[in-house]
Amino acid sequence: MRYAMAMDTRKCVGCSDCVVACQTENNVPLGFCRDWIVEAVKGTYPDTVQMHFKSERCMHCENTPCVRTCPTGASHVIEGGIVKVTHDECIGCGACIESCPYDARYVHPDGYVDKCTFCDHRLEQGLNTACVDVCPTSCLIFGDLDDPKSDVSIILKEKDWYVLAPEAGTNPQLYFLK
Amino acid sequence: MEEIINVSGRAVPHIYPHLEIWGGPIALYLFFGGLAAGLLFFSSFFYLKGKADTMPMTVKVAPIIAPIIIILGLMLLLYDLHHILYFWQLFLHFRIESPMSWGAWTLSVIMIPAILWPLSYLDDIIEYLKENKSNCKMIGLLEWANNLIKKLPVLPTIMDIFIKNRALVAYVTIGLSIVLGVYTGILLSAFNARPLWNTAILGPLFLTSGVSTAAALLMWMSNDHKERTLYSKIDLMLIAIELFFIVHMFMGFLSSGIAQVEAAQLLLGGPYTVVFWVLVVGMGLVLPAILEIMELRGYHIPIAIPAFLILMGGLLFRFIMVYAGQASGFNIL
Amino acid sequence: MKTTRRQFIKIAGASTAGMAIAGSVLGSVQKVSEAVHVKKDMLDSELTRTPTYCEVCFWKCAAWVYKDKEGNIKKLIGNDEDQHARGKLCPRGTGGLGMYEDEDRLKKPLIRRTDANGKQYYEEAEWDVALDYIANKMNGIKKDYGKENMALFVHGAPAKHFEYLFKAFGNENHAEPAYAQCAGPREAGFFATFGSGVGSPEPADMQNSKCIVFIGNHIGENMHNSFVQEVSTAIDNEAKIIVVDPRLSTVASKATHWLAIKPGTDMALLLAWMHVLIYDNIYDKEYIDKYAYGFEELKAHVANYTPEWAAGITTINPELIRKSAHTMAAASPASVIHPGRHTTWYGDDTQRERAMAMINALLGAYGRRGGMYMGVKQKLPKYPVPAFPHPHWSWQDITKPKFKNAAVGLTNVLIEASLPEFDKKHQIKGWFIAGTSVINTIPDRIKMFKAIENQELIVVVDTMPMEMTGYADVVLPESTYLERHDYSRAGKNRVAQVAFRMPAVEAKYDSKPAWWMAKELGHRLGLEKYYPWKNLEEVLDWQFKQVGSSLEEMKKIGVKTFPSTEPIYLLPGEDYEFNTNTGKIELYSTDFAEKGYDAMPKFTRHDSPDPGFYHLVYGRAPMHTFGRTQNNPYLYDLYETNSIWINPRTAKLWGIENNSDIWLKNQDGVISEFSTKARLTERIRPDSIYMVHGFGHTNKKLSRARGRGINDIPLITKIKVDPIMGGTGMRNNFVTFVLEEPSREEIIAAADWKANAAKKKEASENKKKETEKKSEAKKEHTKETHTKEEAKS
Questions:
Q1: Separation CA B48–CA B170 (nearest Å)
Q2: Is residue C45 part of a domain?
Q3: Which of C24, C25, C26, C647 to mutate to test the interface with B (most CBs of B within 10 A)?
Q4: How much is the average pLDDT of A90-107?
Q5: What is the CATH T-level fold of the domain A3-177, as seen in this structure?
């Protein structure tokens, strides 16, 4: 089982619903976020200017540098490839934050390091992640890559996609559709 | 005009807009680590060369600094932890892939020789101080400590075993000190997400820098002219090696991918350029080298100057690497 | 600008201490509410839920409020059955619990008092005292002037409760800013064409469309839930999207054709499109032949409005104008121009909307799948009470003579009627405001302050200490939508639905729901016979039972769907009678012609900025609703301040760097009170700047929102009023940059722009007279010398 998420930049309007839904679902304290929106603009007005939005979060990479550098094993990978942090084993040293090319982790006010968990507590109940469920443009697609019939497998076969910073060698599992 | 901006309030403290998870405490910890490694290396090395009596400062006296700064370093490390009440988890696990884990354990293991070595020479240290610095306030404290140790139950036995096997201990300490010195660099170079750190040269560079700072300190503390000259020469050699490493480090960056080139730009025209080239390379490496060459040629230069410059250069170098490294990244946002 | 009789009072805190803890290490000025911080991870199975519909904006999406075992609200999730929500809530809906948790909320009723030194302050009062005060004052106005001489400004759910109260009192002078400051022109324009207004949600059948056209409509930044979901479906269906916007808005970046139009010239483009559709013979001929009146007149009318003519005015390539018209026509009848929402732009807005409606007709869109559907609704009967008294006069008497097609009360007309110089019979002497911060919604502050001065009673009902509360005589704290009952939502849509709202939690502090306030006031005003019920829950239960449901059922399902009785599309070949004079779609409006307005839209040139000035283009952000959410902790976290978008070429001329602080000054000299950051972006034209509306709050009690961003309303001083329905066109204003911090005196002096303008005019007239005198004297002198010379020779 290999969970992955695809993000359709054609449809995203940058409303940040995914940010606030994640905050209410996962009790992320205000002033912190597990996912965020990036706006990218290029070209000149009016003939060549274009823009798109990306919704980014922890990429739950296959080749996780953050899990490798954790001195206590608090950062670990569970079934489906989801990277999680055990709060009581984390000493808050910050090594995992330094090793993430996507700056996806942050230090929670309670002291441990926190990040997107692909809402694994919802996946257990057969629900979708909070961000996927709330997105009004339905531009976030989630599923099991090992299942050829899942939404994400199908969309990644149909459309062109890219990942962020492939040269970092982490093999991220958040795909952006062109 | 290209824009990559954040749309939804990502004002996460210490992450955005600038990554600042590690700061002064970590830089200081790396500096102390390198310095302690160098001190222990020199003391064991010259002991094995039989110079225990001709170079008392190196072999017997100076190592007392090592445990102090190692403990200081450990305290800084603990202070920097965000989940400090769980620090003991660090010593319940050893993760072979995590340089942080390596560091924690190496530091703990090297504490043993770091403490026992100077303790085993406590008599000599007190004697040396009485001869050369009779008004040193530490003498009273050290004498009290010495008496206390002799009265404790197990310790004198351990000390005896230690002293009998000093040669073996020296070999082990050399190994451990090299690991400690290299580790301070490998800790940073293991993070491939920070292109400025992600170079294999950083480990040997930090080791050389650490040993060089130790040599500078020993040169400063020593009373013996021959010892000083020896360290002068050692320092010159180490400075040359460091400059060689730095040049090759930049060559490596500039011929790698765009993330590495941009990382190098931070020190080649970016915000850290002046501090690095003027303070670290200029005043921390080149100037002391020139002064030491002049000293060797016969000009009298107060020994404090090049020594201080090298120490300052080493400290600033670590500060710059910690901050600039976190400023380098893959520009994802 | 300070008033004298009524000073702006900051609501300073004798109120119960808020539970705010300063959070955030890097010194950002946020308060982490304790309630948020202590919540625990929870599975859905451990939560209970109650139904409601959202009140953060006016889309009214039905939602479920999830609560934990202690009864604290954990999250808000959209109702799956609801057509507005479709299982999702927009970011403001999701962050709606911030409205409930905001510790800056109004907590107790406040009454304006004057102390021994003449300083005015707010005194906390019990509800009885406050309501008695209001009732006494209202009776006083009734006695001295008349019960009709009060005005009610409302918006949102409180509207129904207070309109009911006022009607029972014998007063019909109520108005919502939603008409004259927002959607009024499209109602008038589409009504004149199709005989039916637009309403909310707009009946554009976008999820089935093959081509959608947006005129300035920045969907994605105005985040109306099902609207955005339908456009997303349209994108999936590979529909063509045509966007006409001077800025690369979010939807423009997804468009097939983006027409980067010069601000104020949309009419030229619409007329040119009509020309192409007619003269290239690509309009829906069968549909027009059957359903339309006035085609030949229209054809003659647009004969000269060619794309080449429009290109010179709009700066859009004529080929692109043709191409986009052909794209629209190719998709007909599943092709629609969305009516838009905030359409009060330049003063000829009804005619612009009429042009859009006419193009929809030419495309054969009205009543067709993928075009515009004809919405259906489920009527909820009104609880039986005696008939309301007939007022001696109403808003119609002071509005209709001038604005003949105004369908409802106009806020600006009521404010005009509140001025001391207005005729005594119809002069408004008391204001009752609920759910709208009038001062930040309706432009022309100088007139507003004068009107405020003239009122004997101002009551403001609000949940937050918005700016308007500082001018009230009585401030009443309203509970948020999560803490109260309200009348159900039963609007038009593809399928008739009724959405139920019930309180999820108990009202915080001493706040009360609007229905309770209205009922209590009703009792004090002798209107008991109109309030025979105990509470609103009783009324709702009765209403539901009339339509085959019940309170119990609605509590469980939240939204009830009623089977459709009417089709939402025209049946093929159906003989449909439109609600117009001629019974057909009027391409030539007989109604307008009768009333002396242009029967077909004409092009009028609008103002251009002077050198050094730029078009002030304002809009929305998807995480905020107008000016009401800036203090909401969740939404503040997402977007705390607006910025001024400047094209890099313009910025270079001024030496403005990215993220530097700037102030704005408009064409009448008004300076913005706060500064904000400049954002250099290629998304905006070099001759315009863009900003998001709703920021620049001044009330200190809004701890997060105060002082953040620039408020566009004070900068909107030039207002062009639509002659047909009285809407206030606000996009005629231009701004220049102020790079040095202006002093407080400068800002205050500049705010008095009408007096400044009068002084300037007087000064220039005096100067003119001087120069005239001088030139006269000179002429006389030359004449004299000439005569002298002549005499000499």
A1: 7
A2: yes
A3: C26
A4: 92
A5: Alpha-Beta Plaits (3.30.70)
Identify the domain boundary among C39, C71, C101.
C101
Spatial contact of C246 and C232, defined as CB atoms under 8 Å apart: no
Q: Where are the domains of chain A?
A: 3-177
- Beta strands A140-144; A50-56: pairing state: unpaired
Q: What is the pLDDT of residues C32-83, one digit of tens each?
A: 333 333 345 567 778 999 999 999 999 999 999 999 988 899 999 999 999 9
Q: pLDDT digit string (tens) for C458-503?
A: 999 999 999 999 999 999 999 999 999 999 999 999 999 999 999 9
CATH topology of domain B24-327: Formate dehydrogenase/DMSO reductase fold (1.20.1630)
Q: DSSP secondary-structure letter at B96?
A: T
Are residues C207 and C320 both part of a single domain?
A: yes
The model's pLDDT over C276-330, given as tens digits with 9 standing for 90+, comes to: 999 999 999 999 999 999 999 999 999 999 999 999 999 999 999 999 999 999 9
Residue ranges in chain C modelled with pLDDT below 70 = 1-5, 7-42, 792-793
Identify the pLDDT of residue C17: 30
How many angstroms away from the CA of C527 is the closest CA of chain A? Answer: 44
Which residues numbered 56-115 in C keep a CB inside 8 Å of some CB on A?
74-78, 87-91, 94-95, 97
Do C315 and C198 have their domain in common? yes
Same domain, yes or no, for C335 and C199?
Answer: yes
- Tell me, rounded to whole angstroms, the distance of Cα A95 from its chain centroid: 19
Q: List Cα–Cα distances, C721 to C149, C152, C188, C732, in angstroms.
A: 24, 21, 14, 11
- Tokens coding C184: 């009024």
- Read off the pLDDT of residues B252-275 as tens digits, 9 standing for 90 and up: 999 988 889 989 998 998 899 999
Residues of chain C numbered 164-223 and touching chain A (CB < 8 Å)? 219-221, 223
d(CA C482, CA C97): 8
Task: Judge if the upstream peptide bond of residue C503 is cis by omega within 30 degrees of 0.
Answer: no
Q: Tell me: do C747 and C765 sit in the same domain.
A: no
C180-190 core/surface letters (b: 16 or more CB in 10 A; e: else) = bbbbbbbbbbb
Pick from A151, A117, A127: which is nearest to A22 by CA?
A117
Q: Can the peptide bond before residue C263 be classed as cis, meaning omega within 30 degrees of 0?
A: no
Question: Pick from A12, A29, A1: which is nearest to A178 by CA?
Answer: A12
Cis peptide bond upstream of C611, omega within 30: no
Residue C769's domain comprises: 754-793
Residue C436: per-residue pLDDT:
93
Domain annotation covers residue C115: no
Q: How high does pLDDT run on average in chain A? A: 93
**DSSP assignment of B146-164:** HHHHHHSSSHHHHHHHHHH
Q: Between B1, B9, B13, which is nearest C682 by CB?
A: B1
- Which positions ≥6 away from C347 have C-beta within 8 Å? C606, C720, C721, C722, C723, C729, C732
Is residue A114 scored above 90 in pLDDT?
A: yes
Q: Which of B5, B80, B259 sits opposite A39 (nearest CB)?
A: B5
Q: Within 13 Å, how many C-alpha atoms sit on residue C705's CB side?
A: 29
CA distance C299 to C274: 9
Model confidence pLDDT, tens digit, residues C344-372: 999 999 999 999 999 999 999 999 999 99
Q: Tell which residue, C170, C159, C719, has the closest CA to residue C415.
A: C719
The whole model's pTM is what? Answer: 0.89
Number of domains in chain C: 4
pLDDT per position as a tens digit, B14-39:
888 888 899 889 999 999 999 999 99
Alpha helices in chain B (DSSP H): 24-48, 56, 65-80, 99-120, 122-132, 138-151, 155-164, 166-189, 202-221, 225-254, 258-265, 273-274, 287-297, 304-327
CA C86 – CA C80 distance, rounded (Å): 5
Residues of C (505-524) whose Cβ lies below 8 Å from A: none
For position C368, what pLDDT does the model report? Answer: 94
